[in-house]
Amino acid sequence: GLVLLTAWLGVASAGTLTVVMNPHDFGDVDVSAAAATATVVITNTGSSTSITGFTEACSEFTVSAVGLPGSGVLSSGGTLTVNVSYDPVDRTSGTCTVTIVHATGVTNTFQLQGNGNAPQPTEKNVGPGAGNSFSPTVKARPAPTALPGNVVTGG
CB neighbours of 139 closer than 8 A, spacing ≥ 6? Predict the structure, then answer.
């Protein structure tokens, strides 16, 4: 869903970027499910600034900017939509720092976090009175048979 972030990311020499809900928390995400996705909106509340990219080195998180002008300039009052996702690989919590890089060399950061969750196995109660019944079948080897004309002798 759409996540509006509002917390200061910092002041760049040419602009002030804000994000809401920093950090963005994906909560519990099943490791066997598809990646959880969200949209983060970054707002420039200062003067125009030139954004050259995003960096993150987090294996379970991905970040991609949508709608950044080809020039990379985010005008005053302008917004930038950033798609983020979390795809946990195990049952641990994960965090990620995303860095917004400006052409001036100034950087701002925001945080992503989530918890890998594995669904618990479902127990099934079987037995008399449990609403379920089953009849076990025991398979044994067939008894030996003698074919006509064959003599079976024992020793």
Answer: none
pLDDT digits (tens, 9 = 90+) for 74-87: 888 888 888 899 99
Does residue 23 have a cis bond before it (omega within 30 degrees)?
yes
How far, rounded to the nearest angstrom, does the alpha carbon of residue 155 sit from its chain's CA centroid? Answer: 71
| CB-based burial label for 113 (10 Å; 0-12, 13-18, 19+) | middle
Antiparallel, parallel or unpaired: β 49-55 and 73-74: antiparallel
| Strand, helix or coil for residue 50 | strand
Of the candidates 119, 59, 65, the residue with the CA atom closest to the CA atom of residue 95 = 59
The DSSP call for residue 13 is: S
Which tens digits make up the pLDDT trace of 102-151? 887 778 889 999 999 987 776 666 666 656 555 666 555 666 555 556 55
Query: Which residue bears the tokens 């037995």?
Result: 127
22-56 residue pLDDT tens: 788 999 999 989 999 998 888 888 888 888 888 88
26: left (phi over 0), alpha (psi -120 to 50) or beta: alpha
The H-or-E segment that residue 36 falls in is strand 36-44
For the chain, the distance separating the N- and C-terminal CA atoms, rounded to the nearest angstrom, is 81
